[in-house]
Design brief:
The chain is of the alpha+beta class. It is built from 6 helices and 12 strands. The strands form 2 sheets. Strands 1, 2, 3, 4, 5 and 12 form a 6-stranded antiparallel sheet that branches. A 6-stranded antiparallel sheet has the order 7-8-6-11-10-9, covered by helices on one side. Strand 7 (155-161) and strand 8 form a beta hairpin. The radius of gyration is 18 Å and the shape is globular. The mean pLDDT is 88.
């Protein structure tokens, strides 16, 4: 099995203030578990402090190791107030329409990860983005070429191993600086470094911990 533990890389990126949280979820992916019919969400949590993060971390590791799963964490701080308002609005509408069933809880992830509840101003110095690079690792010589290309163009806060490559957690991203072009309606971009495609993801949702098979 392939274990990725990014705790020490992620911790310095978690900046807390009253009224904000970071969203964390553990997912057993079908691609890691061929016998599954679909992806299964095993656990989710609104992390409101370093203490909460430390308290649940061992449980996260046990879940991932037991179910061949991945723990993702979004590195955008989010507003607790906006989250609870959106959740209450959803619950109220379902109750009024008599559609209150257990399936409603599947909507929690989409609400928690909604761009509308992001609250980075006053918490982070700048907005963040994530550069997703596949088929590369921290020991690869290609990493040096990418570092040289990015120097002076974006601020790299951390380089985080992912299941299939690495994630650069960055700020001060301007598409024109990298010659990037938009590739979808979600606001994701793409640029080329020495023939290698790099995807710029608006949703900074990276691996905190994972236990997966060696090959995807």
């Amino acid at each position: 099995m392939k274990i990725i533990d990014n705790k020490e890389r992620i911790l310095p990126l978690l900046k807390f203030k009253d009224g904000i949280f970071y969203y964390l979820q553990v997912i057993a992916r079908k691609k890691d578990n061929p016998d599954q019919l679909r992806d299964f969400h095993l656990f989710s949590r609104c992390v409101t402090s370093i203490e909460v993060f430390e308290f649940i971390y061992d449980e996260i590791k046990v879940l991932c190791n037991s179910y061949n799963a991945r723990c993702y964490i979004s590195l955008f701080p989010r507003s607790i107030e906006k989250f609870t308002k959106k959740l209450n609005l959803l619950l109220s509408s379902k109750i009024v329409s008599d559609a209150y069933t257990p399936k409603i809880f599947r909507s929690l992830d989409s609400i928690a990860l909604d761009d509308d509840i992001i609250k980075w101003k006053g918490v982070l110095n700048n907005s963040r983005c994530m550069l997703d690079v596949d088929d590369i690792n921290l020991d690869s010589g290609l990493l040096g070429s990418l570092d040289s290309f990015l120097a002076g163009k974006v601020q790299v806060e951390a380089i985080v191993p992912s299941v299939s490559g690495v994630h650069y957690i960055c700020s001060n991203f301007y598409p024109g600086n990298l010659g990037a072009s938009r590739i979808d309606r979600s606001g994701n971009w793409e640029f080329d470094v020495h023939g290698r495609k790099v995807t710029v993801c608006r949703d900074v949702n990276t691996i905190l911990y994972s236990c997966t098979s060696e090959k995807e």
